[in-house]
Amino acid sequence: KSKPGFECCAGAINGMLVWIERPSELECDTAQCGSSKFFCGRKHKFGLNLQGTCDSEGCFLDVCIAHPASTSDYLSFSTSSLKNKLEMPGFLAEGLCIFGDNAYINCSYMATPYRNVASGSKDNYNHYHSQLHIQIECAFSMLVNRWGILQQALSTKLGLKKTTSLAMCLCQLHNYCIDSRLEAGEQ
After folding, report:
1. pTM beyond 0.85
2. Is 32:96 a contact under the CB 8 Å cutoff?
3. How far apart are CA 125 and CA 70, in angstroms?
């Protein structure tokens, strides 16, 4: 949904930190990486990188939790099944693409903003691009606010596998809540 009528947007993609306590040595051995890989320097928290893609209503179209928090959004995406699907001819209808931020690479299936512009048509494009891309940030915000357990560090007692399963389940429940609201005719 866009005021300038960008009809090419199939969804928006970004990464989110699923906050966890510092993983145990056993969990790190299982994950085959040290605990420092789970530390996100930008957020100053341990966690997992959740790659989410959503539609204009904030429903998750795709969710992948396969990497520790220090992994860049681009690397998380480039190893995901979604990237493989997007590269398959015919997966997206002709002329559609996913809107991502500058962590991703602009290509036939991914629209990213221009870098280092301050005015003109490229700046206008960036403005409208951000109106579409912000939908994934709103979806993450709804997810975390709806399920308060994500507002604190998830216990190491859960383990990484169950933490991943919990986050995936919460995303599915998030979609169920949105679908129920839409079926009831609420905005």
Report:
1. yes
2. no
3. 30
